Amino acid sequence: MMHIRVIGICLAAVFLAAAHVFPTPAKAADETFVFTAIPDQDESRLRTRFEKVATYLSAELGVPVEYVPVKSYAAAVTAFRNDQVQLAWFGGLSGVQARGLVDGSQALAQGAEDLEFVTYFIAHHSTGLNETDAFPKDMAGKTFTFGSKGSTSGRLMPEFHIRNQFGKSPDEVFSRVGFSGDHSKTIALVQSGAFEVGALSFAVWESELKAGKIDPDKVSVIWRTPTYPDYQWSIRGDVNSRFGPEFMDKVRTALLEMDDPVLLESFPRSSFIPATNDHYAPIVKVGKDIGLLD
Amino acid sequence: MTSTISRMYRASPLARTLGGFIILAFVLLLFADVEISTVDPWTEFGRLLLGIVTPDFTATENILNAILYTIAFALLGVTFAVIFGFALALVFQNPLVRGFCATIRAVHELFWALIFLQIFGLSPLTGILAIGIPYAGIVAKVFAEILEEADTRAVAATPSGTGALSMMLFVRLPDVWAHYRTYALYRLECGLRSSAILGFVGLPTLGFHLETAFRQGNYSEVSALLLIFYVIIATQRLWARRQLLPIYLIGAVVILPWSVQISMANITRFFVVDIVPFPLRNGEGFEGLMDWLGLLLANQALPGTVATIQLTMIALVATGLLAALFFPLISPLMIGRTGRSVGHVALVVIRSTPEYILAFVLLQLWGPSMLPAIVALALHNGGIIGHLVGRYTETITLRSDAPRGIARYGFEILPRVYNSLLALLFYRWEVIMRETAILGILGIATLGFYVDSAFAELRFDRAVFLIGITALLNIVIDMISRRIRTSLRLRTALEGR
User: Fold this and answer.
1) Measured between alpha carbons, how far is residue B160 from residues B90, B166, B168, B170, B174 in Å?
2) Cβ A75–B266 below 8 Å, yes or no?
3) How far is B431 from chain A (nearest CA, A)?
4) The pLDDT of residue B447
5) Which of A41, A199, B56, B176 is the most buried (most CB within 10 A)?
6) Which chain A residue has its CA at the smallest distance from B241's CA?
7) For chain B, what is the mean pLDDT?
8) Would the pLDDT of B117 be above 70?
9) What does the pLDDT look like over B27-36, one tens digit per residue?
10) B258 and B128 Cβ atoms separated by less than 8 Å
11) Cβ within 8 Å, pair A43-B83
């Protein structure tokens, strides 16, 4: 008889779960405005940090605001597209991908640092490569690691320059190509000599250098890319109809007026400045050139 | 005379099969991309070791939630799998059902999760189904096999004319019920591992924090999270009690964050737009589709398949060797009580550390090639098989004058466990192949690597196509493995399935 009871309760639990999954739709009046963000460095304690941002936005906008943590740029894009978040702090490439998938969505603001973002190429000292102004073609034939597959500074821009300079794909240029998944991992892998050359966000390099995590006898910068636009806040096009007229403008103002260093530190940016979709035309072009965007 | 000798030296079918596998693995290893290329790994490795011995349990926010979610997804996923797997097992003779089950279990839970993330987003349904669906396929197969192998005497003694339902409920089920329970409990351990790993793609389990901490080099946090995970797995026998199960299940349903809304439009869009090959959506017609397919096959599917098979076969043989080395660590026939406790802890650590973490540590140490992946897969699976074989030796009684030490291992124990060890190994063949998927995320260009890239590039048409190829490959391996096990009469204990 024990069996029957256990089975019965298991079934009940499954139905209870099913009932939870399809709840009655919430009333529009108390609809929650949800955002997500992945900082380009230091992903520890995301929820604690971004819940402060949520509190700030909620006070400025007069609606409940919630933060949802996601794992990757692709996951952020998916959540934005599926309307599970309405606002997101995207990288350059993921922002372009997301806005391409949601009609009417807008880039609202970018970090002051994002206007002129740079990718650093770094090399292990055993390669004998030193910093040059011209693109260091000597890196051909070495092993090379990108960062995350969906990263602008760790993938898109370095791949663009490699293809542009060599006229070949990274696979053909290097003896081995990897994806470390993260800027910090790229440093660790090149520093250990596991990969000879790598490319990453200048911001992560500078901050890890300051934190003493980099041994300058083992790894150093060999080339800096020209500047390009990177991270930005993007918002879905349908927010005005759901959260009230001029909601989008209110969000933009709230972001631009964010001046509490504690909040800005989470991104980390010194301030936010206005951005538009057109700012990111160079990223669209590069993405199409190297076949990451259709 | 010569014929007697040649008969004496003619290898048995088992030895020939085994020899074939070993030679094949050796040849593949010759062509494999295996090298040690790091120059000075010790700085980072030193930081890693320091982190391991200084676990920081305060570094992870909401750690209690992560622990509870890990257990909740495992419980609900496995419950789903057992209920549906049981139902499917009853009609498993039907070839359609058989094929369906083979297909759903051929896709790794990480891939299911990546697909459901597109459809349901971060709803708990994603995690429950990602574990529940492939596990239902596995449970169905194993439950059906148990039913097949059950004692037929009770059935024979039942009067003719007994209804099929009564026969099932009152005659056949009581006989196999205990086996089903044991197996369900074993699945729960697997479910806990899977649940943690699903965090790597974004579910809020321990793996979510583990992956971030590892990627960013916060090794003290990594150490703490791994320790918590080991404790959950190692104490499962203590807390996973049948009487408490209903309470756990209701608790699991209550704590999961159900607030994420599911939209029908997203579900529909995934099926009618996202996974339709790009040229068709773009109106390029049949010709465009052929170009797309040709490029995808030539540039990703074929090289990915070759690398996947290569990695799988080498890792399979290495797994067998390691399992034979590992099982004595926990065998009462080989090692005393204290030594065995150490052995148990060692094997829990080896088999519960996600392959991804193992591989990444080895990558740091040896540099990028197939080597870290081979060793990581062999360690993880060798740990699992070693554990099962070690436990099996508890049932063996030796003569009082049995030899000791290496002679006991070689002449008494190994011959007795040899058969089950190989059976377990062949059973895990398809599991190892599925697991190469995770290492694809590491950058070894298996099929998993290309699937991961397709998801990163938001090209779901390619992702689903490539997942289809991995499923096909898995089904083929499953079939070959079954044939080998049948023809060599390799049988395994319940837990190895």
Assistant:
1) 20, 12, 14, 14, 19
2) no
3) 25
4) 92
5) A199
6) A6
7) 89
8) yes
9) 999 988 888 8
10) no
11) no
Write the residue in A17, A42, A179 that is nearest to B76 by C-beta: A17
Sheet holding A219-224, edge to edge: A176-179, A143-146, A197-201, A119-124, A219-224
Looking at beta carbons, which residues of chain A come within 8 Å of B201?
71-72, 75
Query: What single letter denotes the amino acid at residue B285?
Result: G
pLDDT > 90? residue A116: yes
Task: Tell the CATH superfamily of the B11-40+280-497 domain.
Answer: MetI-like (1.10.3720.10)
Residue B264 has pLDDT above 90, yes or no: no
- Whether B88 and B140 have beta carbons less than 8 Å apart is answered as yes
Residues of A in contact with B221 (CB under 8 A): 44
The reply to whether residue B215 touches residue A16, judged by beta carbons under 8 angstroms, is no
Domain parsing of chain B, residue ranges: 11-40+280-497, 59-274
Identity (one letter) of the amino acid at B245? Answer: L
User: Could B211 and A70 be called an inter-chain contact, meaning their C-beta atoms sit closer than 8 Å?
Assistant: no
Q: Do B457 and A149 touch (CB under 8 A)?
A: yes
Distance CA B429, CA B404 (A): 33
Spell out the alpha helix ranges (H) of chain A: 2-21, 46-61, 73-81, 92-101, 157-166, 170-173, 183-191, 202-210, 239-243, 247-256, 261-265, 281-289
Residue A41 exposed, middle or buried by CB count within 10 Å (0-12, 13-18, 19+): middle
Question: Is CATH 1.10.3720.10 what the domain over B59-274 is classified as, yes or no?
Answer: yes
Query: Are domains B11-40+280-497 and B59-274 of this chain identical in fold?
Result: yes
How many contacts does A have with B, using Cβ atoms within 8 A?
Answer: 176
In A, which residues are within 8 Å of B61 by CB distance? Answer: 45-48
Cβ separation B37–A185 shorter than 8 A: no
pLDDT at B68: 95
Rg value, chain A, Cα: 22
Measured in Å, how far apart are chain A's first and last C-alpha atoms? Answer: 60
pLDDT in tens, B209-255: 999 998 888 999 999 999 999 999 889 888 888 888 889 999 999 99
Residues of B in contact with A71 (CB under 8 A): 200-202, 208, 211-212
Contact (CB, 8 A) for B166 and B475: no
Contacts of B200 in chain A (CB under 8 A): 71
Q: Can you give the pLDDT at residue B125?
A: 94
Task: Label residue A25 by pLDDT band (50, 70, 90).
Answer: very low
| Strand partners for A145 | A178, A198
Percent residues over pLDDT 70 in chain B:
96
- Residue to mutate among A82, A83, A176, with most B CBs inside 10 A, is A82
B456–A149 C-beta distance less than 8 A: yes
Shortest CA distance to B75 belongs to which of B263, B205, B208, B217? B205
The structural domains of chain A, ordered by start, are 30-115+229-289 (3.40.190.10), 118-224 (3.40.190.10)
A143-146 and A176-179 as β-strands: parallel, antiparallel, unpaired? parallel
Residues of A in contact with B43 (CB under 8 A): 191-192, 215, 218
With beta carbons less than 8 A apart as the criterion, state whether B52 and B219 touch. Answer: yes
